[in-house]
Amino acid sequence: MGDLLIGVDLGTTNSEAAFINDKNEPEIIPAREGSFGGKNFPSVVAFRKDGKIIVGHAAKRSPFEKITGFKRHMGTTWKYRSRTLNREFTPQELSAFVLKKIVEDAEAYLRKKVTGAVITVPAYFNDNQRQATKDAARIAGIEVRRLLNEPTAAAIAYGLGKAKDEKIAVLDLGGGTFDVTIMQVSSGVFEVLATSGDTELGGIDFDVALMKYLRDKYGLEETPDMQRQVELAKMELSSVDVTYIGDIEVTREEFERVIEPVLKRLEDPIRQALKDAGLTPADVDKVVPVGGSTKVPAVIRKFESIFGSEKIVGGVDPMRAVAIGAAIEAAVLEGRWKGEAPILVDVTPLSLGVEVQGGLVSVLIPRNTPIPYSAKKLYTTVSDYQTAVRIKVVQGERRLASECIPLGEIVLDGIPPAPAGVPKIEVTFTIDENGILVVKAKDLGTGKEKQLTIEAPHRLSEDEIQRIIEESKKYEEEDRKLAEKVEVQSKVVQMKKALKDLMESETFKELDDETRSRFTAVVSKLDEVESKADLEAIEKELAELARKLYGAEDES
Ligand code: ADP
Ligand code: MG
User: Fold this and answer.
1) 68 lines ligand 1 (CB under 6 A)
2) Residue 501: pLDDT above 90?
3) CATH number of 444's domain
4) Which of 474, 496, 525 is the last residue of a domain?
5) Ligand 2 mean position to 355 CA, how many Å?
6) Does the annotation mark 481 as catalytic?
7) Which ligand is nearest to the CA of 293?
8) For residue 451, how far is its CA from the centre of ligand 1 (angstroms)?
9) HEC assignment per residue over 332-358
10) Is 479 a catalytic residue?
11) pLDDT value for 553
12) Which of 14, 56, 154, 445 can pair with 39 through a Cys bridge, CB separation 3.0 to 4.6 Å?
C-alpha cells in the first residue's frame, strides 16, 4: 500500500474528493454507499442515540438529529450542541467528521494510505477560517499539504492559468452560497482582483421556490421526503424538458418561470465584483461556471447575458471542478503530474520590509514576488555607540511602518560601540513555498546573528489584502510627502552632525573668518529646512564651499 495525496473540496452542503490516477487523469473518489444524484459526500453529520456519529448520505437521509452548513461558522466561536449526545461540537470537529469519512472511503477505494490532502477554501476566507480548516484536518489525522482557493482550483481543472494576462470570472453557485471571484491569471500566477457574493443564495432557493409552487398549485405537502423528491426533479430538469413527481408533470419551462426571481439575484454580486475589480464584463476573457447549481441551463443563460456566450468555458463537470483542481495540485506537489497544468505560483500578496529611521519602511520583498524567494539588505546604526538594533518586520503597502501590519521584531544586541553608520547589520528575508518567512539579522562585525520565524505572514483574506492595496493608493501622495519630510529631516540631522564635527576640528580653526562664518550660516539655515528643494540648495552651497576649501589647498 503506497501513500497518496488527494484533493478535497470541503463544501458547505456537499464535499467531493479526487485524485490523479496512473493515466494522469483526474478521478472522483466515490462514497462507499454510492452517490445519489448529488456529490459523494454530503457535508452532513447526524447523531444517533447509541452514540454513533454518521456522515454523508446516511446522515442527510436521517430523520433524527443532524447538522449541516457548519462551514459557515469556521473560524468563529460558534458551537453546535447535540441534544442526542448532550455535548458540544466546534465547526472544526464537525468538518473533521466529513474529512475522516472522505479519507476512509478514499483508502478503501484506492487501496492506498492517504497521508495528506490539498484542501480548498473560499477565496474570501481569512486567517482564522483557514486555520480552522487546517485544525479540522489535524483532528481528522491528515496533513494539509496546501490550502488552495476554490476559484483557483476550479480554474486549474478547466485548464486555465497557462496563458499570459487573462482575466477570468469564477462564478460558483452551490447549495446555499454564490461566490464571485474575479482573477487575473498569468503563467501560473493567480491573483484575486475582487470577491463578492451572496451567502444566502444557492440551489436550495430553487428547491424552495419549486416546492412552494407545487404546494400552491397541487397542494403538495412539504415533508422531508417531498423536499428530496423536489430537489431530484430539479436536477433532472437540467438535462430533460419534463419530469414527474408522482403523477404531477413539471416542465423545464415552468421551473424556469418559478425561479426567475432567484436568477435575478445573481446579477448584483457579479456587478459588484466587476466594479471592485475596476472592470466591465467586456474586460473579462473567460467565465468559469462552478458548483452544482450552474448545471441549471437558465443559470448559464444568465451568465451569458452578462458576459456573452463565447466566454463560458466548458468540458468539466462544474460540481467536480474544485475537487479536480485540488487533485491536480496534489499531484503537482507529489511531483507526479505529467500534464501541462500551470505550476501554481504563489506570490507575496503584500510587501514585506523592516522599519528604518524616521518610521519609514524599507522593503525587502515587494508585493507580487513569486515565492520561494530570498532578499538581503545592509543596515546600520543611527546613533553613536549604539550597541543594539531593533528590527521591526512589517507587511503592507504604506511607506510609514506605523500604517503597516507588524509581524514581529528582532533585537540584535552586543554590537561593539562605534560611531553611527559604521556597524553593518545584514538583514535577510527568506520566504519558503508555504509562505513561511524567516528573518535573519547578522552583525557583520562580530558575526553574531538572530532569527525570527513568522509562520503565516500573508494569511489575510483576499478582501483584506485588496483593502490594504486600495488604501495605499488613496494615501500615496500624502505618504510620499511624509516620507520625503522624514528623509529630509534625517539628512539634516546627519549633515548637522558632520558639520559640527568639522567645526570642532583643528582644520576648521585654521580657516579664514569669512569661510568660517559662511559655514556657521549654513548650519543655522539647516534648522529651517522644510523641503527637499531647500535641502538641495544647501547641499549645493556646501559643495561649493568645499570646492573652494580644497581648491585653496590645491593652490598652496
Ligand atoms: P456546495 O459547494 O455549496 O456544497 P455544490 O456545488 O455541491 O454545493 O452544489 C450543490 C447544489 O447543486 C445543490 O443545491 C444541488 O441540488 C445542486 N445540483 C446538483 N446537481 C444538479 C443538477 N444536475 N441540476 C441542478 N442543480 C444541481
Ligand atoms: Mg462549493
Assistant:
1) no
2) no
3) 2.60.34.10
4) 474
5) 41
6) no
7) 1
8) 49
9) HHHCCCCCCCCCCECECCCCEEEEEHH
10) no
11) 47
12) 14
